[in-house]
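Input chain follows. Return structure tokens only.
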Amino acid sequence: MLPDESVNDMYGRLNVIVNEIKGLGGSYTELEVAQKMLRALPAKYETLVTLLINLDMLRMTSTALLGMINTNDMYKAKKQELEEVSPTSKKTIALKIEVDEKGKSRVEEDKSDDLDDEIALLAKRFNELLGRRRGKGNDSNSYRRRGRRDSHKRSVGNLRCFECLEK
């Protein structure tokens, strides 16, 4: 694989070479093409190559291999994009200091994630309210079911053995 070449371009070049060899009377199996493709990948794919070699290589086709490599590339690109958009390890806190007439200072925190906290609290309260509404007769059978269970427990205590007539 060339240094500035994509995996799809490399696969296209490999396919052209394999087709020319087949046209000249030679033959390559899908396994051989897949193995050559794995050997041609650069060092940044070393972990993926190790993983793919440990899979069932006898059934692997070169197109399936290309799909797995492209899926890996898309996953890494999406992960990198998400890390750039929302870095979780960095928190910014802005402090405001106000000085009173008496010279006392007061510090106020303005956190950048206040909105997230408020949304989380609102969602929690909404779920609690929804849970209360569900439990208070929103389901008309819930009271009946509870009543049946309780009465069933009471009636089990009054049962007697059929053979010996003991409790």
